[in-house]
Design a protein that fits this description.
This protein has 258 residues and is an alpha/beta fold. The chain has a single domain, classed as Nucleoside phosphorylase domain (Rossmann fold, 3-Layer(aba) Sandwich). It contains 8 helices and 10 strands. The two termini are 22 Å apart.
């Protein structure tokens, strides 16, 4: 590890915005010297992946929180690269739980769109897809709604935060990637209880979860399946980030040397 890495702990090489702690948990387990702190409304973590200095922020769900969290991350750690990472819903039937979606552009349901200046090849045989990622205003729960959104926006995956992150990154002149892992595919609707048990910060509302189980005992099994899918998606995201972080850190040093 270089002397710069040892002494300049405030600044990060790569910043990552996620909504929920589970999304980056598996990746952070692969990092070293991870430290957690709170700043304002958000939880930050910093650590090292090899020599790369990583800073993450948990925004909670939704557009407004993602914007504020991204701003806070930039102000605190000034990373040249910022990634929007986390779970997403598949909008095409080929994509399965654990597959990766890399955004070539980010669009929302109101007509806003930002292109991502990347030339990143997809590889569907290995579960890697590239294309348009849609940022929605609320969780997209049903297969029918996912099909409608795909037809309308020609998007491959849907989340709640990526466009918000991309806009703040653009305004600050930083570089951006949206990397999402599929936690729910087109094989079935999400259980209706998901809309009531997930709080705005991404935490599970325990009272709502217990109430849902009381009203529909079968929801306990559904929520367990969601947890298993989330764990699988988080592991796949961590594996994919292994390579991405190495490439981005290398590109930062190439740019500095030129």
């Amino acid at each position: 590890m270089s002397n710069d890495s040892q002494t300049d702990l405030a600044h990060a090489n790569i910043g990552i915005v996620c909504a929920l702690p589970i999304e980056l948990g598996a990746f952070l387990d692969r990092c070293e010297k991870v430290r957690k702190y709170s700043g304002g409304d958000f939880v930050f973590r910093g650590g090292f992946y090899g020599n790369a200095k990583i800073a993450t922020v948990e925004s909670g769900t939704g557009f407004a929180r993602a914007r504020r969290a991204t701003q806070a991350l930039i102000e605190a750690h000034t990373p040249p690269w910022i990634l929007s990472c986390g779970f997403s819903g598949a909008l095409i039937s080929e994509m399965k739980v654990g597959n990766i979606a890399v955004g070539e552009s980010i669009v929302d349901t109101h007509g806003q769109e930002l292109a991502c200046e990347l030339n990143f090849p997809g590889d569907s045989d290995r579960g890697l897809y590239t294309g348009r990622i849609l940022t929605a205003d609320a969780i997209v729960r049903t297969v029918a709604e996912k099909q409608r959104l795909h037809n309308q926006f020609d998007a491959i995956a849907v989340d709640l935060e990526s466009l918000a992150v991309a806009q703040v990154v653009r305004d600050h002149g930083k570089q951006f990637m949206a990397i999402r892992t599929i936690s729910d595919d087109m094989s079935a609707d999400l259980p209706p209880e998901i809309l009531s048990i997930l709080g705005s910060t991404g935490s599970v509302r325990v009272g709502a979860a217990l109430g849902a189980i009381w009203k529909r005992p079968g929801s306990a099994k559904d929520m367990w399946r969601l947890r298993e899918a989330a764990s699988q998606a988080a592991e796949r995201l961590a594996t994919f980030l292994d390579g991405i972080i190495t490439q981005l850190y290398g590109s930062i040093h190439v740019d500095k040397d030129q």
